[in-house]
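hey so u asked for the seq, here:
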Amino acid sequence: MSASGRAYRYVGPHHVIAAVQSADSGATIRIAADFADWVVARTAEELDEPFTFVVGTDGALRLAPRRSEHVACASGDRVLSAGEISFYTEAGRWTVNEVSNQSTGYCPDVASWLAVAQALDQASLDHPDYFTHAVVFRRCPTCQEHNIVREGHFVCVFCDADLPRRWNVDLNADDPDGP
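ran it, structure tokens below
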């Protein structure tokens, strides 16, 4: 469970999760040696772009190419966080450049940062102290659509209803038998 007490279920389109196969899962990065092995297999072009990431419920970071689905990176499982991440080298050491919780498949709360920081620390990767681009997700209680809150404007873009201030995308996120 994450520091926020939440494991996120996939809430995106059903056809995407139906297409997930175990072979689609991301590379698991638990320790610095895992990252070193993973990064040497990447091309310069790949390293110029962000990567898809998830933090599994086991606390491990998983990385996949940017255009990968988060749910595929997670092998269809619940996650403690998900988003995009980029890296750069500084004085011969790999460092996280940017990291966000941008995942419309899981819609993780910004509170999921703690799970990301713990996974990056475990892999000995220097990182910022927070999401460099934090995305605020909410589900509209009126029309049930998922929204990205922009500029603190908590209003549904689909029906103009007020959005809650607290994360509510999947109220049964921790219930294994939830919808």
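Residues 113-122 form the longest helix (10 residues). Residues 175-179 have pLDDT under 50 and may be disordered.
lmk if thats what u needed
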